[in-house]
Design brief:
heterodimer, A: 445 residues, mainly beta, 16-stranded antiparallel beta barrel, B: 125 residues, mainly alpha, Cytochrome Bc1 Complex, Chain D, domain 2, 51% helix
């Protein structure tokens, strides 16, 4: 496993290094399509049905011409304001409120290498970390074929974040909000599959997409070695004991004027907290998800995405060492979003979220100002409202297919935060004190 | 000779009837059908190829003749003129019309919508 990981990383680095940095082609350059063909609102990562199929096709679709260089770049500049100042600075080098941040500068190796191999690999320099680290990776091997007279794609994804390989905007890696503040408090509980393993693992999943309708995927994840994680500047987190199985089933229907999907997904992980040995904490996640998109003539596009995840937890290891007060627990996470985009340019999205579970003193009542929970509860609930403007990314846009940009204004409101509406941390902070106004300008090249 | 003239007249009548049917389609509504069904992959601008070739001035064009578009071998072998009848047959069931072609489109079942979109294509010149 260690060797495979090293070779993969080496291969990706080489792919990035062998191409001259004279041009920055993207998927749009490779396919001849505009950003709006694959993305609702002309900007990633919210996918249209066309984009869903492009992803499942392993990023290999092209205009048939040679010479496309699979490199792209991204930059996000943002501003964060919370309703009440934090009790301490948001991060090193930042204030306790009203922070401007060069949030992300990313490089991508993104595109087609052969008829059957494509990749989406991202390295990111970010604040507040101020270092370059491995971000999302999705390397694909695909084989289109006919099965019982129907178009079928069989594929393998090698990726470093469970659900990052998924083609729907319902699962944790790709659901709304697609960009958010890293300098505002966020609820302290979420299911493991919702980012708890991102970038610390490497997995391989095999999938089939039959008749443009049925999607099935099965695979497993293991932790990178600690030295590998160090070399990629990724916090090692906890170690998977053995292999964590991952599975996914979905039905998808693209009716061109509209599209919908529904499905199930799940993962079962045994973690060694802090890379200890011996006992493990066990997380069994199962999710149900669905989406509907009205596309029409693409002038008025409505989309609804949702998922519900239930996680059963067994803290065999943490209970033994005092990290958890209960040996067993659970967590539920509901996420819904509805978006409207006009003329592939102006967008308005409302997201609702609700996470709840059993109380646990050791897990949640940490005694930290802003981040703790005096009620020892993971319960949080709120909404996110975002307005955005994407002036480019269409067929006639300036810079197409070289450049794209989104400007967004986002407001996050909390009805409940870490278990309470008022004085949730025991230091007098209310849930609404964490309400966040966030603006961003997001460039992609 | 009589038979030949008879056949030609029958062909002319049937062509005329078909053209009349296509003429009945609403080109403006055809533009909406185009946006719904075709525009993800086809531009109507001269020289702008996307996943599919530009459909500017498509009516009357010889098949597979845009120089910088990478057609499938099957489309190159089609060797036809894109008139209303040929387009109608193609967009009704692309995979039957051009087996082995690259167009990943299942076809437009609605006959009226096909007429309208063909009439819309006829305005692109």
């Amino acid at each position: 496993m260690k060797n495979i990981s090293k070779y993969l990383l080496l291969a990706l680095l080489m792919l990035g290094l062998v191409e001259p940095a004279l041009a920055v082609p993207s998927f749009a350059r490779q396919t001849g399509q505009d950003c709006a063909a694959c993305h609702v609102g002309s900007f990633g990562p919210q996918l249209t049905p066309y984009g869903t199929k492009f992803k499942l096709g392993g990023y290999t679709e092209s205009d048939g011409k040679e010479g496309h260089i699979p490199l792209s770049a991204m930059l996000v500049q943002s501003f964060t304001h919370t309703n009440k100042d934090l009790s301490a600075d948001a991060a090193d080098g930042f204030k306790n409120n009203n922070n401007m941040s060069l949030q992300e500068v990313s490089m991508f190796v993104a595109g087609r290498f052969t008829d059957n191999i494509g990749a989406f690999a991202q390295g990111t320099w970010s604040e507040p970390d101020r270092q370059f680290s491995m971000d999302n990776l999705d390397l694909r091997l695909v084989k289109p074929m006919q099965v019982a007279g129907k178009d079928t794609v069989l594929g393998i994804s090698v990726n470093n974040n469970p659900t990052v390989q998924d083609p729907f905007n319902t699962v944790p890696a790709w659901r709304f909000p697609y960009m958010s503040s890293e300098l505002a408090p966020t609820p302290n509980a979420s299911p493991l599959i919702a980012g708890g393993l991102e970038q610390t693992v490497i997995g391989a999943t095999a999938y089939g997409f039959y008749d443009n309708n049925w999607y099935a995927e099965l695979g497993g994840y293991q932790s990178f070695s600690k030295s590998m994680l160090n070399s990629m500047n990724v916090d090692p987190g906890d170690k998977i004991d053995g292999t964590s199985p991952y599975w996914r089933l979905a039905y998808f229907q693209d009716l061109r004027k509209q599209a919908f999907s529904f499905g199930l997904f799940g993962m079962n992980s045994h973690l060694l907290p802090g890379w200890s040995s011996g006992r493990t904490d066990k997380y069994n996640d199962i999710g149900i998800d669905g989406s509907y998109t009205f596309l029409g003539t693409r002038e008025h596009v409505f989309a609804v995405n949702g998922s519900f995840i239930h996680e059963n937890r067994n803290f065999d290891a943490s209970y033994a060492d005092g990290g958890a007060s209960n040996k067993n627990g659970h967590l539920n996470s509901l996420n819904l979003s509805g978006s409207y985009h006009y003329n592939k340019t102006y967008g308005l999205t409302l997201g609702l979220f609700d996470v709840n579970g059993n109380k646990d003193q050791s897990l949640y009542n940490t005694g930290d100002a802003d981040a703790g929970s005096i009620k020892a509860s993971p319960d949080s609930r709120g909404y996110i409202l975002q307005a955005d403007w994407t002036p480019w990314g269409k067929e006639d846009s300036w810079g197409a297919p070289w450049a794209n940009m989104r400007v967004g204004l986002q407001y996050t409101g909390y009805n409940k935060f870490n278990g309470a509406s008022n004085n949730y941390d025991g230091f007098g902070r209310d849930a609404s004190d964490n309400n966040t106004l966030y603006s961003f300008i997001w460039f992609a090249l | 000779m009589k038979r030949l003239i008879g056949s030609l007249m029958a062909a002319a009548i049937s062509f005329g009837a078909m053209s009349q049917a296509f003429a009945a389609g609403d080109a403006a509504h055809g533009g909406k059908v185009f946006e719904e069904e075709c525009a993800d992959c086809h531009s109507v601008k001269d020289g702008k190829n996307k996943k599919g070739p530009s459909l500017f001035n498509i009516l009357g064009r010889k098949s597979a003749t845009i120089a910088d578009f990478n057609y499938s071998d099957a489309m190159r072998a089609k060797n036809t003129i894109w008139n209303a009848e040929v387009i109608n047959e193609y967009i009704r069931a692309p995979k039957k019309s051009v087996p082995g072609g690259k167009m990943k489109y299942d076809g437009l079942d609605d006959e009226k919508a096909r007429e309208e979109v063909i009439n819309y294509l006829g305005t692109l010149h």
